[in-house]
Amino acid sequence: MLRLPLRLAASLLLLASTLHAAPQPNILLIVSDDQGYNDLGILGNGIITPTLDRLAKEGTRLTNFYVAWPACTPSRASLLTGRYPQRNGIYDMIRNEAPDYGHKYSPEAYDVSFERVGGMDEREVILPAVLQPAGYKCGIYGKWDLGTLKRFLPTSRGFDDFYGFVNTGIDYFTHRRYGVPSMFRNKSPTTEDEGTYCTYLFEREAMRFIDQHAGKAPFFLYLPFNAPHNSSALEPEIRSSVQAPQEFKDMYPAVDPETQINKKYRYGAPATVATQAARRRDYRAAVTCMDASIGKLLDRLQQLQQLDNTIVIFFSDNGGSGGADNAPLRGHKGQTWEGGIRVPCIVRWPDGGVKPMQVNDELLSSLELLPSLAAAAGAEAPDDVVLDGFDWWPTLCNQQPSPRKEMFWKRRDMIGARVGQWKWVDMAGRTGGLFDLEADPGERNNLAESHPEVLQRVQARYANWIAEMEAAEPRGPFRDF
């Protein structure tokens, strides 16, 4: 029988007692939409984000943090399940393409379109369903994007409360997606707040949730903003940019002209669209407005003496597009270049040992969220499915290197594979190569010819991953089974 020295045994008993007595942490998970890797004020590119800068100073900023897909729907499914898109079944978008070319659905046609009937496989277990049995109250306010039928909505999947929109994007004021009303309260459509800028609405609902639960029960507050995603309106002048309140536009230099005529617009006719300068200004204004709303929530948690025991995590659902700045990365949303999949991420949790003023360069991903938050909450992660992430707290608390050595992406015929410092990219056969990310994070120097043995090794690891995904228990809506 192993005997511990008396002093060590006493220390371990004291530690166990302290951990047992510590309250369960609250969780505030904030996800922005299409925000660029470099779009934090603290990085010096001119964007105004005092709250996110504060989070970076009071917590740890991750520089090698990846999402599991370079666009909305699959990225969100993976962060909530801890599983690759190819494993959880959401490996493409749940959306209709026709509105991109000016088509407006009739209500009857929309009701039977894939955007309306598609959704995450009901067998998938998502984060709130893991946390609820541990006593957590779970709310979501903002963008859902994982199905619009009642059986797919958040309150059917483990959330206690939901207010937001159900698909990939909306007009920020009308809350319509290409003319279709898209806001829900729990399982019911609503137009109660039509005309109010949606960032303010998500702030309002999140504040109500905090006031209702903070200090009374541990909570999981998921706040997936649609900012700074372009507006999903039919009108070219609106949809060609991001909508933002005038007071936040005024925080940036004036733009002249605001619009221009585009003779090659995708609708097939000349159209009035926002200029590049206006898109950049509007994008930044939407980020700054979102930042102000986040600041109000942090202030409220601080007033309630709950902030330091709240895990605050912020990141973007995928790489930036439109007016975004992904420097020094190559590419953008929708691509498997670094600019489509490596995103800004900040974690604040002083009570959990996450130190302030830290920059962490370890390889980490959104797949780590479910196992990590379950561990922090004392909840049991699902044991009947394969999770692709791990508990990241030892890495964030500088106790050990990240266990993650590989990460893979597949969007249709676009491929990305990272193995250690090496990244192989195949952009649908049009371009790509092998890159040393430690020396070349901008993926400018293709080393495929000079390092054929490395390319072969990375491609072999990708092939193994593909085989593993194909052998996994199939999930809908895309998989044939």
Describe this structure in words.
The protein has 481 residues and is α/β, with parallel strands linked by helices. The chain has one domain (24-405): Alkaline Phosphatase, subunit A (3-Layer(aba) Sandwich), CATH 3.40.720.10. The chain has 15 helices and 20 strands. Residues 1-21 have low confidence and may be disordered.
List descriptors.
Alkaline Phosphatase, subunit A, 4-stranded antiparallel beta sheet, 20 strands, Sulfatase, 10-stranded mixed beta sheet, alpha/beta, 481 residues, Sulfatase_N, 15 helices
Given helix and strand content, the structural type is alpha/beta
CATH class: Alpha Beta
Low-confidence stretches: 1-21
What is the CATH third-level topology name? Answer: Alkaline Phosphatase, subunit A
Q: What average pLDDT do the residues reach?
A: 94
Strand arrangement, largest sheet?
9-8-5-4-10-1-13-14-2-15
Q: Name the helicity range.
A: 25-40%
- Report how far the terminal alpha carbons are from each other: 53 Å
What's the CATH architecture? 3-Layer(aba) Sandwich
Biggest sheet: strands, sense, closure?
10 strands, mixed
The CATH homologous superfamily is called Alkaline Phosphatase, subunit A
Strand count: 20
Radius of gyration: 22 Å
Strand fraction band?
15-25%
Number of domains: 1
How does the overall form come out from the CA principal axes? Answer: globular
Keywords: Hydrolase, Signal
InterPro entries: Alkaline_phosphatase_core_sf, Sulfatase, Sulfatase_N
GO molecular function: arylsulfatase activity
Protein name: Arylsulfatase
Quick structural summary:
The chain is an alpha/beta fold and 481 residues long. The protein is built from 15 helices and 20 strands. This is Arylsulfatase.
